[in-house]
């Protein structure tokens, strides 16, 4: 066991020998794990944004041919916002003068938006299927190799999609094959990073820590949108090539530096029951990094008993089976809740720039790049939503109540954005921000803190070998919803965007209803904890 741990030491750590001898190394390693896993998943999410950014270019007949002219009316944006947000003035063009040879075949015909939706779904379905297998493998394989290999492979696949621009590829099957391969490879990311975080951090302040950490999703969406939009005018292929190369570089960095388990560097797991302690300089639980059981300003190291067990090659923990993981309390309700939550979130992820571009805002249409840049406001709101949901759920110790509350708040937010988002640019941005807070709050909470809680549930008797499997079950089920949402939008949007928003609102309702039972349980626990009595039916009547 000890020998296998040494072989898992990241080679890049040899460049920083002082860290391994530092008395505060526990905190240093935890900070590095947070930053590296944050970067890893931000890059993975950034690589998913190019399809939504170039959707207008691929399907529109003249999407890049309209001149970008500053508006002369009072709503024109001032510097520096005018650099990022520009308005597109469309000259009068008769329908007979528009050639279907514009755009990019096979997406430039009358069924172009539906085909683009199908390509998105090919990625998401393969991603959701791959997630179940990735979780099973993640609890059994070396996570550093698993994560870095998936990132490098995913980056190359993203580049392959963009290379179709220079290779002049117009075969629909090529885009389907590339997206299916990309979905399977990207499925290695989420179970890996959540398992790594779970290996390093116990339950204390997990909601807040993971809420902040999970902002990588929104930050990645913003990075991806800005990267893809900034090079779009040079050709849509660059919008894939730049994020793809960045993802490959990130994968190499994970291989060189990511420590996936504290025991690799001689520190104790937060799930170890036998610990010895060494004095440290301020690495206490109140720093927000150390875990329950760390007391009197001490950092746990692997105890002598644990070390001696390792020397005798102690048998590793047995990984939890797929069906056994489904039977863990609360896994199924949260998994199906996430199904509908991700349906809403991913519909915005893949279709929001397209929706903004084809919606008049104060009587004007925005350019392709501006529509993509404005869509990042949703992700900025999502960052705050994830942090708030995590913080509040830590304070209340009630994950289901917080998830359901944010979900129900999303209902008026979605309705108001559809009704009033076209009034002015700033009102659109404000309502989009609020929608991002409410939609991404429960999505972020369930995929991080809830999944980590359930992956180390008390029924597992201290085993941490269910983290990747449980995470994959929850996020994999959610990813099926993420595939269905964009698919339905591609067809429903033909009848009008009101139909799409009705679908999103109904999905949010179902998402909240599916965890109603858990909400009732937590309300009873809160009443009991606060010394309150739940009134009976007779008392109420």
Features:
22 helices; MFS_dom; 541 residues; sugar transport; 4 strands; two-stranded antiparallel sheet; Major facilitator superfamily (MFS) profile domain-containing protein; mainly alpha; globular; transmembrane
Report on this model:
One of its GO terms (cellular component) is membrane. The chain crosses the membrane at residues 114-133, 145-167, 173-201, 213-234, 240-260, 331-352, 372-393, 400-420, 426-454, 466-488, 500-520. It is a multi-pass membrane protein. With 541 residues, the protein is mostly helical. 65% of the residues lie in helices and 3% in strands. It contains 22 helices and 4 strands. The strands form 2 sheets. A two-stranded antiparallel ribbon has the order 1-4. The protein is globular, with a radius of gyration of 24 Å. The N and C termini lie far apart (64 Å). Residues 61-101 and 274-315 have low confidence and may be disordered.
Annotate the secondary structure layout.
Elements: H1 2-7, H2 17-21, H3 25-46, H4 50-59, H5 81-84, E1 87-88, H6 112-138, H7 143-167, H8 172-186, H9 189-200, H10 206-213, H11 216-230, H12 238-257, E2 275-279, E3 298-302, H13 304-311, H14 322-326, H15 331-357, E4 365-366, H16 368-396, H17 399-420, H18 425-455, H19 467-492, H20 497-513, H21 516-529, H22 537-540
Antiparallel strand pairs: 1-4, 2-3
Brief write-up:
The protein is an all-alpha fold. It has helices at 2-7, 17-21, 25-46, 50-59, 81-84, 112-138, 143-167, 172-186, 189-200, 206-213, 216-230, 238-257, 304-311, 322-326, 331-357, 368-396, 399-420, 425-455, 467-492, 497-513, 516-529, 537-540; strands spanning 87-88, 275-279, 298-302, 365-366. Helix 3 (25-46) runs antiparallel to helix 12.
């Amino acid at each position: 066991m000890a020998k296998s741990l040494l072989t898992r030491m990241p080679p890049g750590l040899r460049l920083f020998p002082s860290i391994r001898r530092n008395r505060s190394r526990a905190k240093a390693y935890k900070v590095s794990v947070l930053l590296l896993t944050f970067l890893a998943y931000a890059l993975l999410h950034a690589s998913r944004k190019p399809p939504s950014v170039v959707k207008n270019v691929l399907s529109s007949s003249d999407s890049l041919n309209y001149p970008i002219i500053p508006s002369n009316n009072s709503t024109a944006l001032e510097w520096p916002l005018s650099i990022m947000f520009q308005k597109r003035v469309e000259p009068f063009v008769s329908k007979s003068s528009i050639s279907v040879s514009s755009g990019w075949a096979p997406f430039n015909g009358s069924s172009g938006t539906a085909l683009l939706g199908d390509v998105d779904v090919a990625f998401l379905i393969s991603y959701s299927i791959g997630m179940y297998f990735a979780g099973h493998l993640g609890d059994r394989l070396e996570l550093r190799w698993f994560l870095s290999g998936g990132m490098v492979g995913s980056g190359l696949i993203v580049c392959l999609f963009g290379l179709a621009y220079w290779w002049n590829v117009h075969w629909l099957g090529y885009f389907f094959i590339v997206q299916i391969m990309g979905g399977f490879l990207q499925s290695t990311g989420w179970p890996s990073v959540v398992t790594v975080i779970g290996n390093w951090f116990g339950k204390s302040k997990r909601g807040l820590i993971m809420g902040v950490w999970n902002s990588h999703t929104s930050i990645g969406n913003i990075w991806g949108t800005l990267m893809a939009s900034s090079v779009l005018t040079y050709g849509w292929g660059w919008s894939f090539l730049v994020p793809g190369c960045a993802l490959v570089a990130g994968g190499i960095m994970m291989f060189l530096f990511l420590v996936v388990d504290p025991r690799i560097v001689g520190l104790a797991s937060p799930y170890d029951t036998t610990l010895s302690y060494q004095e440290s300089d301020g690495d206490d639980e109140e720093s927000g990094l150390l875990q329950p059981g760390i007391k009197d300003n001490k950092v746990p190291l692997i105890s002598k008993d644990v070390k001696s067990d390792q020397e005798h090659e102690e048998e590793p923990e047995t990984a939890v089976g797929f069906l056994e993981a489904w039977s863990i309390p609360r896994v199924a309700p949260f998994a199906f809740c996430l199904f509908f939550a991700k349906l809403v979130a991913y519909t915005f992820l893949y279709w929001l720039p397209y929706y903004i571009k084809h919606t008049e805002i104060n009587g004007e249409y925005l350019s392709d790049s501006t529509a993509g840049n404005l869509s990042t406001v949703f992700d900025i709101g999502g960052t705050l939503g994830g942090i708030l949901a995590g913080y509040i759920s830590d304070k209340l110790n009630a994950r289901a109540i917080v998830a359901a509350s944010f979900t129900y708040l999303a209902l008026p937010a979605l309705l108001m954005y559809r009704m009033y988002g076209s009034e002015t640019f700033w009102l659109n941005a404000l309502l989009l921000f609020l929608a991002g807070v409410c939609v991404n709050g429960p999505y972020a909470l369930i995929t991080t803190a809830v999944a980590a809680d359930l992956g180390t549930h008390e029924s597992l008797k201290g085993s941490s070998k269910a983290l990747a499997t449980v995470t994959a079950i929850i996020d994999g089920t959610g990813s099926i919803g993420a595939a269905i949402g964009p698919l339905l939008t591609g067809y429903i949007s033909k009848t009008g965007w009101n139909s799409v928003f009705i679908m999103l609102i109904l999905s949010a309702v179902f998402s909240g209803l599916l965890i109603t039972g858990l909400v009732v349980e937590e309300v009873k626990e809160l009443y009991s904890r606060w010394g309150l009595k739940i009134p009976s039916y007779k008392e109420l009547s």
